[in-house]
Design goal:
This protein is of the alpha+beta class and about 80 residues long. The protein is built from 1 helix and 5 strands.
Length: about 80
Amino acid sequence: MNPERLVAGLDIGSSRTTAIIAEAIGESPNAMLKILGVGNARTAGMRRGVVSDIKETTQSIQKAMSEAERRAGVQVDGG
């Protein structure tokens, strides 16, 4: 698996945060994504679509990303 071909996505909803890690397969414009791992966490720190507590929201994101990384067997960095 080529780390440069990994893609991570994040959906922060009002009740659930979902993270997904995938690998790009093929070349553009016909590239496809192979899903490697998905993580979910209960969203905290959000109220009506607005961040009300950044610390709680950050913890929700970290939990979802950690679960996705564990399931994918890879580490995602900020690079």
